[in-house]
Amino acid sequence: MAELLTVHDAVARYVADDQVVYLAGFTHLIPFAFGHEIIRQRRRHLTLCRATPDLVYDQMIAAGVADRLVFSYAGNPGLGLLQVFRQAVQRGELEIEEYTHFELVARLSAGAAGLPFWPLRSLENDLTARRPRPRVRSPFGDEEVAVVPALRPDVTLVHAHCADEDGNVYAWGLLGEVKEAALAAHRILVSVEEIRPAASLRRERDHLLIPGFRVQSISVAPFGAHPSYVQGVYDRDTAFYTEWDRISRDPEATRKWLARFVDAVPDREAYLRLLPPDRLAALKEAAQVDN
Amino acid sequence: MTTSRRGEMAIVGARLLRDGERVLVGVGLPNLAANVAKRLHAPHLVLVYESGVIDAHPPRLPLSIGDPDLVRTSLCVLPIGDLFSQYLQTGWIDVGFLGGAQIDRRGNLNSTVIGPYDHPKVRLSGSGGAADIASFARRTIMLIPQDLQRFPAAVDFITSPGHPKRGRRTQGPASVVTDLGLFDFDEEGEMRLTSVYPGVSIKDVQQRTGWPLRIAQEISEIPPPTPAELDVLRELGGGQEAAY
User: Fold this and answer.
1) Which of B201, B62, B159, B116 is closest to A77 using CA atoms?
2) Which of its termini does chain A have fewer beta carbons within 10 Å around, N or C?
């Protein structure tokens, strides 16, 4: 049964140096509260995995938590490149293992299903030229298909709309590869906008993302996905995504941002107090159209 | 490139989409072009985004492929594993609509690195779903501004595969839209110039192409934007968003 822990305690207990870690969420539901906590607790030598590293990994790379990155699209969505990632790779400071979206999700599907590999038909390219993708012959015919190996993170961190007291996790909207990334992991840590009574969630069974028996811990973190979003709760803070493009081009500005918004605050509540209240209110207001 | 050039590319790209088609839309110019098409001649165009969004009706130009606006105006949002395996891989996407940093004569697209992979001069975003889309879409249309760096004889890195070194696959690259003209691929899988913008000569195009360009027997002139196309472009923000 999932334990109820603070974000701090969940990371302190279950995220360790040298682990393979997956922060899930595809544009939507990105667990920034967990990402910032990992930076604050100065984890080192992590292998960070994510289809779309997004700002959260740009910030974690800048903070020095990662040695390796496993990914498929390292851009600032809609704005261009991830500047910290780009500079780290160009300077040879970050080891990378790169896939297409389909390949990376296929690796997670294998991990989640407890299988050694997953088949797919995507054509070869210069990624497969560098890291050959084996082919297997179907035992049911002559056909050959390419396969990718299972990915099994030590820990996957997820942000979701809500959970009940038993740790059953509910989310809806754009779910990307969240379910596969979670179920592929040995441990799943979840942060949620709120805890709601189990009785009120029974009818939401189509939105159940992960049953509580599979979840290690639940942490309450309102606005835990900011500047990413939670459909129907608050919209994406695109102004911050634009701002990060500017900040992250300058290592000194990046260092100052991390010092002020991550290292100098004890938790998510303190981070939120640094943001203009009307900015958060506007993001909430914009999301109300879904309700 | 000026806004109007980007805008013109989006309009020419939009014209290549047919009403009712299912198009998997990439970020940047393809996103602008697909949204132009949907507001004009292709109201039943099914906009699919690699975030899993199926049949979006965005009220304004979405900044990213995972925008809350796309989700809330969609028919549904699939887990991306389902989209790639059960819809894209099985041939249900008609058009892959892609941008990139470089393209070569075989329609190979590079969105990974400029320079060598291990010591890149510029590290770009990487494939995302582009390589998968280029693998499976019934035809691929690419929008890319043209100069010698972007149109080399061979791309620095093949992210999204085009036609093989010899021959042509039945799917794969069908059209390329640049700020100079419009290209198709001949029966040998080789890129071929078919039309140019008013005031652009074949020589202009050759000068900004990194290999001896094949030219169609008859080169037509691309019709200038209509008032309706320009109105929609303005409504969508004039194509001032980032390139990729």
Assistant:
1) B62
2) C
* Helix/strand/coil for A54: helix
Confidence band for A1, pLDDT divided at 50, 70 and 90: confident
pLDDT of B241 > 60? The answer is no
The Cα–Cα gap between B33 and A169 comes to: 38
- CB-based contact, A100 to chain B, within 8 Å: yes
* Count of other CB atoms within 10 angstroms of residue A252: 8
pLDDT digits (tens, 9 = 90+) for A172-229: 999 999 999 999 999 999 999 999 999 999 999 999 999 999 999 999 999 999 999 9
CB contact under 8 A, B72 and A51: no
Tokens 């596969």 -> residue: A180
Q: Looking at residue B3, what is its pLDDT?
A: 52
Task: Taking residues B95-124, report their average pLDDT.
Answer: 97
Nearby residues of A33 by Cβ (< 8 Å), 6 or more positions away? A7, A159, A191, A219, A221, A223, A224, A225, A268
A240 Cα to chain B: minimum distance (Å): 13
SS3 content of chain A, % helix, strand, coil (to 5): 40, 25, 35
Nearest to A173 among B77, B122, B131 (CB): B77
CA distances to A51, A214, B32, B232 from A158, rounded to whole Å, are 14, 13, 32, 39
Q: Which residues of A touch B53 (CB under 8 A)?
A: 174
By Cβ distance, the residue of A26, A109, A290 closest to B66 is A26
**Residue B183, SS3 per DSSP:** strand
Q: Are A73 and B126 in contact (CB under 8 A)?
A: yes
- pLDDT for res B238: 63
Separation of alpha carbons A239 and A96, rounded Å: 29
Asked if the C-beta of B201 comes within 8 angstroms of chain A's C-beta atoms, the answer is no
Please state, rounded to an integer, the average pLDDT across all residues of chain A.
97
Tell me the three state secondary structure of residue B14: helix
Does residue B232 contact residue B40 with C-beta atoms inside 8 Å? yes
B187 is catalytic: no
